[in-house]
Structures are given as structure tokens and as C-alpha cells.
Amino acid sequence: xxxxxxxxxxxxxxxxxxxxxxxxxxxxVAALARRYAVPAATILAANGLGEADALKPGQRVLVxxxxxxxxxxxxxxxx
Length: 79
Prior knowledge:
With 79 residues, the protein is α+β, with helices and mostly antiparallel strands. It is 19% helix and 13% strand. The radius of gyration is 16 Å and the shape is globular.
């Protein structure tokens, strides 16, 4: 008898239209605001952050009104 391991991922339903971004090591609220074309104040308010708060790598950040970014294949990649 064989056993298979199934990986399950949780579904996150956002409270407002937008995207949930996982912060990278160099991400800032200002950088996310530019990337998603939304005001930094909107991101701060949605996440309960103050202007002096820094994002931590791996922190999940709600970007209200943001739209998923297009993904491009790396040069030379073959699928």
C-alpha cells in the first residue's frame, strides 16, 4: 500500500480588492506603492503601519487596489 503526501495551501480571502504581497529583503512601503500604483498612505492604513515602520522580509502586506503584476519569463528559459 503506498501513501501519498498532499500539500495543502490556505486560501486567503482579502477584505478589500487588491493583492497580498510578501515583502522581500529590500521592499519598503514606498517601493510597493510605486510598484502597484497606489498611495503609500493607503498601504500604511490597510496594514496598521506608521510612516516609521519598516517592512520585514516575509511580512505579508495588503495592497488595496493593487492588481497582480505580469510575470515575464527569463531570457533563454525554455518551457
